[in-house]
Amino acid sequence: MGVLSDTWTLHGSAWGQSSAGPGARDSHRVATLGGKVVLFGGNAGGGAPLDDTWTFDGTRWLRAPASGPSARWDHGMAPLP
């Protein structure tokens, strides 16, 4: 199976597909921050690491500012207390 770019959310007992967001990737990491999901990095499927950061509020994805860590995949990420 190739890398995917879809986002699914659970509302009660029904699954629904959310709006467009980050491109297809694998080996990325996610953590929670202030009630949002934060996604960083990963691999686009061709071996090139990614350096983009996205936030998801349960409805839509937003691209975060370009400044951040250098591109990487299979990294660690942890939620803030």
What would you say about this model in short?
This protein has 81 residues and is mainly beta. The chain contains no helices and six strands.
What key phrases describe this protein's structure?
two-stranded antiparallel sheet; mainly beta; single chain
Q: Give the tally of structural domains.
A: 1
Query: Ends: how far apart?
Result: 35 Å
Strand order of the largest sheet: 3-4-5-6
Main beta sheet strand tally, sense and closure: 4 strands, antiparallel
| Inertia-based shape | globular
By DSSP, the count of extended strands is 6
Uncertain stretches of 5 or more adjacent residues: none
Number of helices: 0
Strand/helix succession: EEEEEE
**Helical coverage, percent range:** under 10%
Structural class: mainly beta
Task: Describe the overall structure.
It is a single chain. The protein is an all-beta fold and 81 residues long. The protein has one domain. Helices cover 0% and strands 31% of the residues. The protein has no helices and six strands. The chain has strands at residues 8-11, 14-17, 29-33, 36-40, 53-56, 61-63. The protein has a four-stranded antiparallel beta sheet with strand order 3-4-5-6, with no helix packed on it. Strands 1-2 form a two-stranded antiparallel sheet. A hairpin with a 4-residue loop joins strand 5 and strand 6 (61-63). The model has no long low-confidence stretch (mean pLDDT 85).
